[in-house]
Write a structure and sequence with these properties.
Blueprint (H helix, E strand, L loop, with lengths): L1 E5 L8 H19 L4 H8 L3 H10 L4 H10 L7 H22 L1 H22 L11 H14 L4 E8 L2 E8 H19 L11 H18 L17
Antiparallel strand pairs: 1-2, 2-3
Helix pairs in contact: 1-5, 3-4, 5-6, 5-7, 6-7, 6-9, 7-8, 7-9, 8-9
Length: 236
């Protein structure tokens, strides 16, 4: 399943969401320009759980070195598909969440979800020496918020069956619910895999989603005129 768009319009320009996409793209272009220096760059600014816990045990006063990668890692990507996939999901779901929260609240929410995802990854993979990068944990938080904020939305989705493509509308609750369920399943299966094997940070996705679902109760604006489209309440 590949999402194409959702059916909930945004009533304000998503300046923060667009800015996040631009910033991630510009940083990735900088990564591409590094050539052979890219690997040490990613090891320096990515989240490495084993390094985090080693510093905690041996250099407890070096707080900056322990914590800044949790922030910087959420603006780095490992390739074009990694970047484009993450930014596409952010584009689809982020504008509505920003619309409901407001620009400043949405930015703070996004950063907190990214941090929550980073900490989840750290504590679920404490012995890993692999640098973890990507905005997917923060974006999972946006999806978690969308899951509860727009339960009647639908996601127009491309379904690929061998050489055939079908375009269907899927309820957002099902689309996002299935997505987070798969993160939980894959995360559970990954617990038996060597911690230095690399791969997808499933637990970061799950942690970000849960954080977003909870934090949206704090960050969503209470007093506002909520405009609702009739299509939002179609029962199918």
């Amino acid at each position: 399943m590949f999402p194409l768009k959702d059916t909930i319009p945004s009533y304000t320009f998503p300046v923060v969401n667009v800015s996040l996409i631009v910033i991630n793209a510009l940083i990735f272009l900088y990564e591409v320009s590094l050539g052979p220096q890219l690997e040490p760059f990613l090891r320096h600014f990515g989240v490495i759980p084993a390094k985090f816990f080693w510093l905690a045990a041996n250099e407890p006063g070096n707080v900056w070195a322990r914590y800044y990668p949790i922030f910087t890692s959420m603006f780095l990507h490992g390739g074009w598909f990694h970047l484009i996939g993450n930014m596409w999901y952010l584009w689809i779901f982020g504008d509505n969440v920003e619309d409901r929260m407001g620009h400043g609240r949405y930015f703070a929410f996004y950063i907190l979800c990214g941090l929550a995802a980073g900490f989840t990854h750290l504590y679920m993979n404490p012995n890993s020496h692999v640098p973890t990068i990507g905005a997917s944990g923060a974006i999972a938080g946006v999806m978690g918020a969308y899951f509860l904020m727009f339960p009647y939305s639908r996601v127009i989705t491309a379904i690929f069956l061998f050489f055939f493509v079908d375009i269907i509308e899927i309820p957002a609750l099902f689309f996002l619910g299935f997505w987070v369920f798969m993160q939980l399943i894959e995360g559970t299966l990954s617990l038996g895999v060597a911690s230095n094997a690399g791969g997808v940070a499933w637990w970061a996705h799950f942690g970000g989603f849960v954080a977003g679902a909870l934090l949206q109760f704090v960050f969503r604006r209470r007093k506002q005129l909520v405009k609702v489209h009739r299509d939002q309440f179609r029962p199918w």
